[in-house]
Amino acid sequence: xxxxxxxxxxxxxxxxxxxxxxxxxxxxxxxxxxxxxxxxxxxxxxxxxxxxxxxxxxxxxxxxxxxxxxxxxxxxxxxxxxxxxxxxxxxxxxxxxxxxxxxxxxxxxxxxxxxxxxxxxxxxxxxxxxxxxxxx
Length: 136
Prior knowledge:
Blueprint: E1 7-9, H1 17-29, E2 37-41, E3 65-68, E4 76-79, E5 108-109, E6 112-113, H2 128-135
């Protein structure tokens, strides 16, 4: 597994603790520390999903989180994480529950809209490829 320097914006949880541990270990063997930088804009619901349900459906994020603490993206904090144990402090994204995150914060990162309808034409798929992308 080749791991390059990674920055994500609004990434959902995609694996369990074993997945995160394997990814972090692979990154560290290749000199990438942290394994990735995970940027979260204020009350974006997507990084809080799917919810981690210990004993039933366990998911986690890879480190490190950069959490923008206001809607205008004027201030941020770095939320350190040890291995696959997600930072659950009240100051980081996990401190604000998914159930209260019904807003458009996922569409804006660093004060730039990520809404598909505003994307440049060269960034949009057309025809069958676009329809297949939406189905998956």
